[in-house]
Amino acid sequence: MLDLPLHEPVAVFTVVLLVLLAAPLIGRRGVPSAVVLLGAGIALGPHALGVLDRDPTMVLLGTVGLLYIMFLAGLEVDLHELEEGKARSLGFGSATFLLPQLVGAGVGRVVFGMGWPGAILLGSVIASHTLLAYPAAARLGLQKERATTTAVGATILTDTLALLVLAVIATGARSGGGFDLGVLLRVVGSLLVVGGAVLWGLPRLGAWFFRTAAQDATLEFVFVLTAVFVCALGVEALGVEPIIGAFLAGLALNRLVPEGGPLMNRIGFVGNALFVPFFLLATGMLVDLDAFAGGPDAGRAWTVALAMTATLLVTKGAAAWLTRPAFGFSADEARLAFGLTVPQAAATLAAVLIGVEVGLFDVAVLNGTIAMVFVTCVVGPVVVERVGRRLAQAAAERVPDARDGRDRVLVSLANPATAEALVDLALLARGPEASAPLAVVTVVPGGPDQAAAVASGERTLSAAVVHAAGAEVPVLPIVRVESNVARALARAAAETRSSLLVMGWDGSAAAERVLFGSVPDRVLRETPTAVLIARETRPPATVGRLFVAVPPMAELEPGFRSAAGMLLGLASRSGAELVVLTPAPYADAVREAFARARRGGAAPEVRPLDRWADLPPTLDTALRPTDALVLVSARQGAIAWRASLDRLPRVLARRHPDLSLFVLFPGQVPVSAILPSGLTSGDRAFLDRLRPNAVRLGLRADDPAGLFRQTLGDAFPEDVAARLAAAPADARPEIRPGVVLSHVRSSRADEPFLCVGVSREGVAMPGASGPVHVVLALVVPERVPSRRYLGWLALVARMLRDDATVEAVRQAEAPGQAHAALLGALRTDAEAS
Predict the structure, then answer these.
(1) What are the structural domains of the chain?
(2) Does the predicted model carry a pTM greater than 0.85?
(3) What would the pLDDT profile of 270-280 be if each residue is shown by its tens digit?
């Protein structure tokens, strides 16, 4: 027969594990797991059934759990949102501290008859709070909501102010004096020194460790835990509560632990499965039911408990509700902020115990505080669970996350040495909210060694599957036996309905006429899927700034918005600052495109370039060793394509050999997906306006103005031709070698009109890679909506989608032949789609 309370380690741990197992099962019936664990702590604790004792081991694990909660809050908070919302955090933190502090001090003075030191300390006890309900918000995906980041930022302010009050009052009480300015200055100075050291030094140490010293996942996890508790211990040594150090460690490591990655998953799993439940159990064990059931102090205990609890609930609720209009919060967002800032925990109890020790509080205040802690630990998670579900549902409806292929990522694995890095990149691009499995494919050639090649490919895939499993991401492994690797990858992308294909690159190319080498170049011709080609030199989590170079007119590409959304998510999840470089005439349009794609987090910084040709020298001076670069490129035939884009990846790779360089080709979609309702009667009318008499053969002018005058003929006055000629070279994209597209809005156009100029011998055009054989001049009315404008540009760009069509137009003997070549295949494709 076991004696109670249990002390045998196996028996104690068995009981605890049974409680941890029962909590989520009961939670499925609508009771928050935190409430179940607190109730179990009360029932099994020394003041009820006496099954478990609150011994040093339980206190140790409970303390670790509290530190872990604060660490997770700092680690998971959206730093961009916290930075943008620092005014909200400061305002709400001030309100949620001052209201409880002032009212609580008044209650202590008037209701409990305390002196001013005790009353002020009581107010600070009520004003502080712990993010005990934060795990519930994180489970619902609300950790990046503005109400959550506001509450997290407010927590640091309220707890710091409460600790300052405790330090000053307790020191004064111990010395028999009153207010001690020296103590206040010492605590503030300690916070500034430690905070600066942690936030400056730990990110640099962590980046170095993850880049050079980490050998496996276990070592990375142990490093993170060590950093947390070293920071907590260092802060405590200076007289500040260790929860502040744990929170600062979370903030410092925030950018180094990617959201949704294997390391983040391990950190969250260990905390939510073990440390946080121990903290809740240990907190429940503090409740002494006998103190409220009878005895001489029961009446005062009830009075103190009810008064403190009511004061806390009313003032915390008032702070959330009164600041709501200033922050533009909805009612549910205000309730979420209230639920997150209500719970009290070990820090509150520690302050009360110190108050008892120095003679400012009696036992009734201690028991009342324990009751208040229990009530608030129940109220907070319940409010967060109920309100959070409504907010999560509203967020899902507000941002219709495509589950129809847009969250599907395919990774091509050819080199086992880079497999894990490419999978990590794909996880960041995919996002933790994606529902489709991550597809990984390896293509092996057929032949006599086929069996060995397949076995080698399977080993590569198995390593990738295990790595992705660490992030709890389902993986679809694919092995293809195919001599044509590019065709196999294109087929795999189509069969998996992938929206993004991730491939590796070593920074070289087989020849000057290709971008990356034979396989990636062929893939770009075989598939319309977005392709991200990566040369990674450092883990994404260690990237400080992610530069994105956007060429002229790339924002008009049909896949650009999806690409912008992916880049925003990648930067947010890796903790990198997003900096966009684009020519000045296109800066506003690019900024607007990113704004439309943004789903939260910080808006990118857009830096205008004078000319697209200024990109390499600009990067030479702007890039730091911790930066990475994404070059947004385009396939031949796209609106944004120009010959220089084919050379640029090699140029940048040579100029910056240690730079993580990514080249992104936005997806290409059918014309029917661009236009509002497929090919409408208006679009057919636009095509019909391209009559043979709009085609001019035999261009011979030596300057752009003359070329455009010849191309337009008498369709428009000379000032329109002058505007087309005066446009910068960036505004005249070479959509294929020898094909230039220029466009302009004009009040002289009542309807869109396309003119075509053809030169068999070729003419010179500034910015073109060689002789120009076809000039496309599109003139549209001033007030045409951008979406319609984009549709027409896409139609025009597809007219010359291959070399055969270009050659047919070039060799045309009459305008009618060129006209037929331009429209024949396009009309068939558009009507079929």
Answers:
(1) 70-274+291-398 (1.20.1530.20), 399-536 (3.40.50.620), 538-669 (3.40.50.620), 673-832 (3.40.930.10)
(2) no
(3) 888 888 888 88
